[in-house]
Hints:
The complex is a heterodimer of chains A (291) and B (295). Chain A has 291 residues and is mostly helical. Chain A folds into two domains: 33-70, no CATH class; 81-290, MetI-like fold (Orthogonal Bundle), CATH 1.10.3720. Chain A has helices at 10-15, 25-52, 72-79, 82-114, 120-129, 135-149, 155-159, 166-176, 181-189, 194-205, 207-222, 226-231, 240-249, 255-290. In chain A, α4 (82-114) packs antiparallel against α13 (240-249) and α13 (240-249) runs antiparallel to α14. The radius of gyration of chain A is 24 Å and the shape is globular. Chain B has 295 residues and is mostly helical. Chain B has one domain: Orthogonal Bundle (MetI-like fold). In chain B, 72% of the residues lie in helices and 1% in strands. In chain B, α7 (159-184) packs antiparallel against α10. The longest helix of chain B has 34 residues, at 7-40. Chains A and B meet through α1, α2, α4, α5 and α6 of A and α1, α3, α4, α5 and α6 of B.
Amino acid sequence: xxxxxxxxxxxxxxKTQAPKKPANMGQILRWMxxxxxxxxxxxxxxxxxxxSLKWPHEVYNLQLIPDEPHLENYTYVLEDGxxxxxxxxxxxxxxxxxxxxxxxxxxxxxxxxxxxxxxRYIVFIAILSTLMIPTEMxxxxxxxxxxxxxxxxxxxxxxxxxxxxxxxxxxMKQFFETVPNDFIEAARIDGLNExxxxxxxxxxxxxxxxxxxxIFVFLGNWTAFIWPLIVSNSVEMYTLPVGLSSFGDExxxxxxxxxxxxxxxxxxxxxxxxxxxxxxxxxxxMAGLKG
Amino acid sequence: MYRNxxxxxxxxVWAWAFLALPVLFYSVIRFYPxxxxxxxxxxxxxxxxxxxxxxxxxxxxxxxxxxxxxVFKNTFVYLLLGTPISLVISFVIAYHLDKTRFxxxxxxxxxxxxxxxxxxxxxxxxxxxxxxxxxxxxNNALAGMGIPQFPFLQSxxxxxxxxxxxxxxxxxxxxVIIFMAGLRAIPRSYYEAARIDGVSSxxxxxxxTLPLLKPTIVFIVVFSSIGFLRIFDHVFNxxxxxxxxxxxxxxxxxxxxxxxxxxxxxxxxxxxxxVVLFLVLLVVSLIQLRxxxxx
Lengths: 291, 295
């Protein structure tokens, strides 16, 4: 996508006719302000991490770098065992949901894009229309359903509403439009069945879109709050956000421990972002503009 | 059997085989619950007792409830403050970032990083910032400069903007990235023509950049409005000791729904509130699309 493409900046285009000045004060000022703004943006994250490394007596001073940084808070919070469980719960739920979305959203998107069959238009419109329904409207029926079938307080109960999404389906449908029909015809002549064609011919051609979808679904489920809060009752079934919320609420909990808990639930996604930055930003643009 | 089918008939069989499970999923997990939510909204039901059909009683009760109107107003204050503020800030950042080459990727990363955080975690971080002296970072900083304390989350007037701030902060990075992609998509030839005509960069911004950016602006306005109308995670976590407080001054519609359904277990009343939320989202999105597309 265009985001990584290098071209002269708009400003450079406008300025090329002007006589070149050795150092453009305006450009330097702009950079300084952008830099300061950027630093301000990451300050909350920086203070969260810094406080998680502080001793209780240092928590309330404004110093960003702790005098004696230490990992005692992490040891304490993890030894308690709950955060460890919540972390595993969040990870399992986010991974299973992501895999499910990648498979089913692309299968449905592919079918709607490449097959001609009676009912295609109705299925398309029906799935499209679910985009208008807010999750909050469905939580009460979902809760009643979970209660009836014994899904309360289970992984399945937390996961089932998000296993397929209309957003992902349309994102994938858009991208399958770019796969030439000739490729599919050729594979058919070679004797591949439709399932094989989808998996071995079409899917590899939309890998960037699959990555974008996976990132969005994973991040969404890792940070999901309201539904896991409703459906999980026992402490062992909490996800990280629900667990952190209840942990923060315990009156005697100290802020450096809350910051440690917050850091535990934030650092994994930050690390993933720093490693795959380029792909994630490209994915966000794709999902945002096409989805 | 299958062999005797024509290619076209085989395609139909495959298509429906692929769609069987998803169609079942959407019917059971999306359509049935949607209908059910409307259905329950006409009943009086506290989860344990009998379900009785009460017609529009829940809606009448809701519209007569002063708390609902307070909550309704709060929800729109979140929208009317959050959407324009985040739109303007993210455009200004994207506009200038687009013209900066030096360490462009690094600056972009700084702005995007908050988008990768979890709302719950960051709500707790900001909640700590807002605490009174000697705990909170902001008030400690104010005290250090000799400025009187600011009652961020304690005052009925300032609690809502204080809760909104981290929500705006977390969404900025996404909007900046989308705006930058929109800016890159504007054909260069427009800028070259403007350069030849010797137009000022201010005029270029208002006459070329913004009009051509309209699809991006529409997308961001609708997308962020839906987000602000559904605000919950930040409010719930920054006011857990008194959800939506002080005195309901920060309570949005989703929090009211949550409390009615899962603290009072008044399912019918809560379902009526979700129907109102659905209508609000629908109407706001349609109005925005209408206004922004036509102008």
